[in-house]
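Fold this complex.
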Amino acid sequence: MTQAPPNALLSSHPAFAALSEQGRQQLQAGSELRAFTTGQNLSTSDVIPSEVLLLVDGQARLLCRDAGRLCTVEKLQAGSFVGLASLVRAQACEAVSAAGPLHAWAIPDGLVLALLASEPSFSSWCAAHLFIAELLALVEQLLEAHPRKGVSALQELERVRSAARLIQPSVEVLDQLHPDVVLLAASLGVKP
Amino acid sequence: MALLAQHGLLRPYLRQCLMADALATETLSDDERRQALIAFAQQRRLTDGEALERYRIANLLSPEALALQVELPSRLRRHCERLYRPKAEARFLERKQQLDQVVYSLLRLQDEGLSRELYFQLQDGEADFADLAAQHSEGPERATRGIVGPVPLTQAHPQLVERLRTAPIAQVQEPLLIEGYWLLFRLESLTPASFDESMALQMSQELFEQWLEQAVETRFEQLRPQLLAPISEQPQ
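Structure:
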């Protein structure tokens, strides 16, 4: 069986599949293939990375500190982004380390921001994609503001994961929501 | 004495002399003597009286000297029980933390990233500690598939001791940096020491050892002026 060349992912990934020709060329030219070793940090939870990584092969761990212990939230596979959630919400939220040797496309933050501004298909994909790292960060914030004894962030994440969804912050959409639904603004760019 | 000092034998010689003096007054019953002889012969695999006699001759021992060697452990036990048993419990309480026995799994390596990944594999049940230790550990515990112990708790590095004291059983701990190595460890069991008869004897013997060490030091001090005096002043 032959393996698809690494750069095929830059064209076929759902986030990029509908890019304009110019956007595609910019992405191909500006991205760089990187190799990571076992345990190497791909991203930390306190710094917005200067590059967004797109895993090509291997696995990485999304991490969190839950009840004082460092834990795996989930394993990220080929096709997963690292750093995109932090960049889009303008607040770091992804602690990720390599679970083994892996390769990833490194896409400079400037290029990602340019694509967000110029490529509606990419910005729509980002707006519709709920990143688990972001959801976890929101759960952690909620638990910090309203601590509940014996409730861990990971347990809470599992509980809300299937029910959580992204919505457009427009009056029409908000008016249609059930009164029991809790709304959380995920981006630092939103004024309260 | 000077010759013994020259060959590095003065300290063990004084130690044996002082011990023999201290134990000389301890008397054994006939039955205790018999038991002492059986234990002595078994330890040296001397199967009969002839073998014991061959041992005596081979080691240039008079019958009295052999009897002294045979009876030494029993006399020591009696001496310790008589003089130090009353203080044994106090010593036990003083040393209790050092006497607690621990068994733990250990894996140490220099690569921080790898140590962290192995920690996640263990925590998430993706791998077995023994297998990872055998495969990755850079310490001697690699030969025992990571298992250390049972050993006294305080035998480990002080930083590790601190963590082992409070670690829950069977839960792998985050890598800990000690002297250039990242340590992954998991407490398997912690057995607090208890003051039973065997512990009482151990404590009594430790107290006797303490006394013996002091007695040797005192004798050394007494001999110092004599053995370190200028040659012209040394007794002929």
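The longest strand of chain A covers residues 69-76.
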